[in-house]
Write a structure and sequence with these properties.
alpha/beta, six-stranded parallel beta sheet
Length: 202
């Protein structure tokens, strides 16, 4: 259990939503982007989702249609990762893993084409318009899309709760490094708790 396994600002109330980051088939199945321990954290993500599925938003990372598509360095990115373009792996792989897809609806899906859900979108306006001030974050990858999601949430002034045993990555070393940063460098703005601690009060 983390030394900071506590909700310093009290239980998340009705103004909180669960933002589940990129738990998609292309990260769970036999692709070059497979996160080998996604299955390890999936039961915890299911547990968090099942409490309030109607207050869950699943983000999906949607890659380029074809190799070399994209603007600027994203074009180079999809030359390097040509195998992960939609033409190569198929649109079905963009879908959520089946255990989470079962929660939609009432859960909803929010698609993005970059790491951050805040860039080029109206997510912030949607959440504020609904009276949301707190985000409970799960999913992957800890050191890429979760990082971008969390930093944007901080910048917009949301309360951020990271569920540490409901996060995953394809790289243990950088996952561990980011968790250390989340718990220390962002200690004033991010609450890092276990699934058990969260579920006791949400």
């Amino acid at each position: 259990m983390s030394k900071s396994d506590t909700l310093r600002h009290g239980p998340p109330g009705e103004s909180a939503v669960h933002l589940c980051v990129d738990m998609q088939r292309m990260f769970a199945e036999g692709t070059e982007w497979k996160m080998h321990w996604l299955e390890r954290v999936l039961p915890n993500i299911i547990a968090v989702t099942s409490v309030h599925p109607e207050r869950t938003i699943f983000t999906r990372f949607i890659p380029a249609e074809q190799p070399g598509h994209g603007v600027g360095m994203w074009r180079h990115y999809y030359e390097r990762w040509a195998s992960m373009t939609i033409d190569r792996i198929g649109s079905d792989m963009m879908g959520l893993v089946p255990d989470l897809a079962a929660f939609v609806p009432p859960g909803r899906v929010f698609d993005k084409h970059v790491y951050s859900p805040w860039t080029g979108s109206d997510l912030h306006q949607q959440l504020r318009g609904a009276g949301i001030d707190s985000l409970i974050i799960t999913g992957g990858e800890t050191d890429v899309c979760v990082l971008s999601t969390m930093l944007g949430a901080i910048d917009w002034g949301f309360r951020v709760i990271l569920v540490q045993d409901a996060l995953c990555s394809s790289a243990d070393e950088t996952h561990d490094a980011m968790m250390n940063i989340y718990m220390n460098r962002f200690g004033e703005q991010v609450e890092t708790v276990t699934t058990e601690t969260l579920l006791k009060c949400w």
